[in-house]
Amino acid sequence: MDTQQFREFGKAMVDYIADYLDNIRERQVLPSVNPGYLQTMIPKEVPQSGENWKEIMHDIEKIIMPGITHWHSPNFHAYCPTANSYPGIVGEMLSAGIGCVGFSWVSSPACTELEVAMMNWLGKLLGLPEEFLNCSDGPGGGIIQGSASESTLIALLTAKEKKVREIRTKNPHLTEADIKGKLVAYSSDQANSSVEKSGLLGSMPMRLLTADNTGSLSGTTLMEAVRKDKEDGFIPCYVVATLGTTGTCAFDNVEELGLVCKEEGIWLHIDAAYAGSAFVCPEYRHLMKGVEYADSFDFNPHKWMLVNSDCSAMWVKDARYLVEAFNVDRIYLKHQHEGFAPDYRHWQISLGRRFRALKLWFVLRSYGVEGIQQHIRSQIALANYFEDLVKSDSRFEVATSNMGLVCFRLKGPDVLTQTLLDRLTDRKNIYVIPCYYRGQYVIRFVVCSRFTEIKDIDYGWNEICEVSTQILENGLN
Ligand code: PLP
Predict the structure, then answer these.
(1) Residue 450 Cα, ligand 1 centroid: separation in angstroms?
(2) Which helix (H) or strand (E) holds 61?
(3) Which of 82, 136, 188, 396 reaches 20 to 30 Å from 334, CA-CA?
């Protein structure tokens, strides 16, 4: 493909994306294809000679779109939001165009320096304690990781190395293996699946402690588990607190957990993957009370802050622990400006890294503080509107509601709500998924798309009501 063809293909694609998003409301949110559908539509081998971009373009509607679940449809209310915005998309384009690899400062100075600056902007925007910022006097700092899962794992591995060093300094006769075999981690049974996975990947048993009946993990529960583990000869090492659980958007009591961690010398990581974006609005910051106790904090601008995936913002209070844990150097990676700015390869799993800060910069500048606050507040207002609709109908009950997420059910046995969800999924007009809350089956309705308006909430509610009426009047068959 030559430059001229690139210009044509690229421009045609920008138009295609703009039309796709402009008209996304018209598309059925869930696809109607069967597993393997695509395999019969494309050749078994790479084409022998190159094809014209127009042929490729033609196949997008034919082959790809039938198999897309439209996450940005205003009728998508499942999981949690995944961000998408025009400045975010353009930032991705430029990152691909420059195509640099920023594993060290010298490998592309702007890549590191913009990331340092953006993580400071973002940390201030959320109201994080100064110690987390690159611009503070201390050893704190932020990095863009690929996912909240990666951040949780990286924090776990860092906590592990830190703990081993601490113990060996006091007890040099102990081997690393002696210590590592006794380390344990804690989180709540409401934590995201990635938290349990971090324990598996990092070879540290992850105790999933029972959250209270609002889905929140308390300091007392943690303290009790820590005490028991110590009695049994284990070494408490790592705690993951969640601000905004995946199921019901519950908030752990960070202040209580933090006090326990401080007392016991345990690394505290905060996973605020979804709800962290809400801290842009000062009225929600009380939910992160105790954040000053955390050793690391992560949230996903790629969920609710309009920055296209992937962009997971992670801060640590003392980046030296990361570097001590992960510094594997080679002559070909060294440079004469080391120590001036972070060499981010030491802060992450992979060596190479994309220029992700560009899209963050574009989004933060395009929307400004007010635009981002407005986005969060309007999505929460839409969720509140939905909650009021549910409450106005005596056939339903709201189980819990937080941020942009409302969990509701049909009154009566679970099977009614299960059937409602199955039928909604079969009809494919809206997409919602279930979870359990206080032992009952509930449907999660999340305001996900930035295109969602009141009329879409009304549409979703009418769909729910219509199917519910069928179930309640005609029975389950
Ligand atoms: N933590 C929480 C609370 C989440 O809700 C999610 C995803 O929904 C994750 C972690 C995983 O995020 P990621 O896909 O960035 O790893």
Answers:
(1) 19
(2) none
(3) 136
- The greatest distance separating any two alpha carbons of the chain, rounded to the nearest whole angstrom, comes to 76
User: Over 90: is that where the pLDDT of 402 sits?
Assistant: yes
Cα 27 to middle of ligand 1, angstroms: 27
Q: Cα–Cα distance between 95 and 111 in angstroms, integer?
A: 10
User: What is 100-354's CATH number?
Assistant: 3.40.640.10
Which of 149, 187, 314, 348 should be mutated for ligand 1, with most atoms under 8 A from CB?
A: 149
- Report d(CA 422, CA 32) in Å as an integer: 15
273 in contact with ligand 1, CB cutoff 6 A: yes
Cβ–Cβ < 8 Å for 306, 280: no
> How many residues appear in the chain?
477
**φ and ψ of 177, to 5 deg:** -65, -40
Cα of 312 from ligand 1 centre, angstroms: 10
Could you tell me which residues come within 8 angstroms of residue 256 by beta carbon, excluding any fewer than 6 positions away?
A: 218, 219, 220, 222, 290
Of ligand 1's listed atoms, the one at least distance from the Cα of 244 is 3
Cβ neighbours of residue 357 closer than 8 Å, sequence gap 6 or more: 111, 114, 115, 117, 118, 144
Which amino acid residue places its CA nearest to atom 8 of ligand 1?
A: 246
* Ligand 1 lined by 277 (C-beta under 6 Å): no
Cβ–ligand 1 contact at 194 (below 6 Å): yes
pLDDT exceeds 90 at position 102 = no
pLDDT tens readout for residues 297-354:
999 999 999 999 999 999 999 989 988 887 777 877 777 777 777 888 888 888 889 9
- CB-count burial class (<10 Å; 0-12, 13-18, 19+) for 64: exposed
Both tokens assigned to 25: 């409301």
Helix-then-strand count for the chain, H and E: 14, 11
Q: Is the confidence metric ipTM above 0.85 for this complex?
A: yes
